[in-house]
């Protein structure tokens, strides 16, 4: 029995829609009940929120396209100013019912102009007898625009006196949107995260035709068993599933196992899935480079220049500054004379020093150091003489901007700025080579 039912749409269309939006039937059913029939006035504004990759954008696009409802779909990150946003809505509205895209540019400077042009466009496109939907994806960007934009969109049906519904899609809750001056409250709809059963069902739908459904479902089960605790992003899991499936199939292709030998298949794929754990979300290497690594049975760090954590191109003196900062963060101040002076004389090792030097400074974390100590260590580790020019100080600022160094305290401190080195020992070793 189909989960989606609505008297205004054919049963076959709703059945097809249900197959396109698995595990989101309850949300689609709620939206259908809110939308009503084509000619009926819908709710003025709808606010849909949920975590990333919970299906908000996909469900809205699929629903509107499958039911062939007139709509405008705009990403607020791409059109980041109010003028760009309003002009794009009008441009899409003009080409909503025409076969070819509209080429003439629309000028719209204020929301008053938008309301006037919107009324004209609705009349010219003959959209008065059905609901028009304006979907604003990544709607949290509206908070960065003028103060009247968000309240005006929420009341667009009232301002234009037209049958229009504004749908806001966001990853944050409505309480972070609500203006201080008060505004029309939209209908809020929450998209929860996919459960592991939902992810299993959705990912299993993408099985290759040359393999059975049960074989691919078993692979997805293994994949989720490894990655579900660290990654629940559907897009990332789809990428991982497509990237590692060829390695899972290798024993079957070579004839060493059949599709039901799950133990052999698991033993073959387990080390490669563990290596893939290091690249979840990071995209340190491309898909083709990862596949090449799998064929060569190499480690991700063996490809020169692939990891952003072990290979960074920096100016010549910036590398020495970073090394000097690391030495200043992890070596006690009392050891500077011993390490960086050639004729430091005899240094007595007291019981106090021996007791505390047993603890590794890497376990205690980086310590802050002043600017003059950083420059003193820099002068001692660079072979040629370095003048304290503005270029050196600007490179220190660049390292702070790149978050390789962090500034401790405030810029207005009388005793000068203090810094910490935030990179690892492996990073410094790669720089030092």
Automatic annotation (TrEMBL):
**Which gene holds the coding sequence for this protein?**
Orc5
One GO MF annotation is: DNA replication origin binding
TM ranges: none
Tell me the ranges covered by the ORC5 lid domain, including all copies: 216-283
Q: Which family does it belong to?
A: Belongs to the ORC5 family.
Organismal lineage: Eukaryota, Metazoa, Chordata, Craniata, Vertebrata
Cell location: Nucleus
| Origin recognition complex subunit 5 C-terminal domain segment(s) | 314-433
The record's function comment reads:
Component of the origin recognition complex (ORC) that binds origins of replication. DNA-binding is ATP-dependent. The specific DNA sequences that define origins of replication have not been identified yet. ORC is required to assemble the pre-replication complex necessary to initiate DNA replication.
Coiled-coil stretches are none
User: What organism does this protein naturally occur in?
Assistant: Ciccaba nigrolineata
Q: What is this protein called?
A: Origin recognition complex subunit 5
Keywords of the record: ATP-binding, DNA replication, Nucleotide-binding, Nucleus
**Which GO cellular component does the record give, naming just one?**
nuclear origin of replication recognition complex
């Amino acid at each position: 029995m189909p989960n989606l039912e609505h008297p205004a749409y054919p049963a076959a269309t709703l059945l097809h829609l249900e197959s396109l939006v698995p595990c989101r039937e309850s949300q689609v059913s709620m939206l259908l009940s809110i939308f009503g029939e084509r000619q009926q006035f819908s709710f003025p504004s709808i606010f849909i929120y949920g975590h990333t990759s919970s299906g908000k954008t996909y469900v809205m696009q699929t629903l509107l396209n499958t039911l062939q409802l007139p709509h405008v779909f705009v990403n607020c990150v791409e059109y980041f100013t109010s003028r760009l946003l309003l002009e794009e809505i009008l441009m899409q509205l003009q080409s909503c019912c025409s076969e070819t895209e509209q080429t003439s540019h629309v000028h719209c400077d204020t929301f008053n102009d938008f309301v006037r042009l919107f009324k004209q466009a609705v009349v010219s496109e003959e959209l008065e007898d059905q609901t028009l939907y304006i979907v604003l994806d990544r709607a949290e960007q509206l908070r960065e625009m003028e103060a009247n934009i968000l309240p005006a969109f929420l009341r667009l049906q009232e301002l234009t006196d037209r049958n229009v519904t504004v749908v806001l899609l966001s990853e944050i809750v409505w309480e972070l949107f609500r203006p201080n001056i008060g505004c029309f409250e939209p209908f809020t709809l929450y998209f929860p995260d996919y459960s592991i059963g939902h992810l299993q069902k959705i990912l299993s739908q993408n099985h290759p035709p040359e393999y059975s459904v049960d074989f691919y479902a078993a692979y997805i089960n293994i994949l989720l068993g490894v990655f579900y605790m660290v990654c629940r992003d559907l897009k990332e899991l789809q990428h991982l599933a497509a990237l590692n499936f060829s390695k899972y199939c290798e024993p079957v292709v070579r004839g060493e196992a059949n599709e039901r030998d799950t133990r052999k298949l698991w033993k073959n794929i387990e080390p490669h899935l563990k290596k893939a754990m290091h690249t979840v979300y990071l995209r340190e290497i491309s898909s083709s480079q990862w596949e090449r690594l799998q064929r060569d049975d190499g480690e991700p760090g063996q490809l020169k220049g692939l990891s952003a954590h072990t290979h960074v191109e920096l100016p010549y003196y910036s590398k020495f500054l970073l090394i000097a900062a690391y030495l200043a963060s992890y070596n006690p101040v009392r050891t500077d004379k011993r390490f960086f002076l050639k004729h430091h004389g005899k240094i007595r090792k007291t019981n106090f020093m021996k007791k505390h030097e047993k603890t590794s400074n890497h376990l205690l974390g980086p310590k802050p150091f002043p600017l003059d100590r950083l420059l003193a260590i820099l002068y001692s580790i660079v072979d040629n003489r370095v003048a304290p020019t503005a270029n050196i100080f600007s490179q220190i600022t660049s390292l702070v901007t790149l978050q390789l160094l962090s500034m401790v305290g405030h810029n207005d401190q009388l005793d000068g700025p203090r810094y910490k080195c935030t990179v690892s020992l492996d990073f410094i070793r790669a720089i030092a080579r």
